[in-house]
Amino acid sequence: MEAIPRNDGEQYRFDAFCKAVLRNEARNYHRNKKRLLDREKSFSVLSLEELGQLTSVDHYPSEEFVFSSYGCDLHIDNELVANAFAALPKQEQSILILFCVLELGDGEIGDLMGLSRSAVQRHRTKTLNELQKKLKAHLPEGG
After folding, report:
1. How confident is the model at residue 115 (pLDDT cuts 50, 70, 90)?
2. What is the model's pTM?
3. Which of 6, 65, 79, 87 could crosslink 10 through cysteines, CB 3.0-4.6 Å?
4. What are the RNA polymerase sigma factor 70 region 4 type domain coordinates in residue numbering (predicted)?
């Protein structure tokens, strides 16, 4: 295919137009690249806290232990904690589930379970202290 012959003036305007278009395209490319670089950070310059915000952890039902009481479920994904919790009597488990999951007060738990507020408070405090001692025994020295 042959190019249509043009006079020098038309060719000059066409060449100038093409150069202007290319200059604008290059300018836009560099402006967009600079905008992206201003917004982006390399992973190597992020703090551990910032990196932690970028991660997600998948939880699978097979990796967690579920304890239920009064229609309320407590999910524990740490095997050591779950074993310590499972070793508790059912009444203490129920008190902790209602306290931790439903965030009920001792009086409300007592009304639900047929215990006095002070009995619930005694059971809860004693049980939490026992759990803490059991779990601390599995920590390395100074942990």
Report:
1. very high
2. 0.56
3. 6
4. 80-128
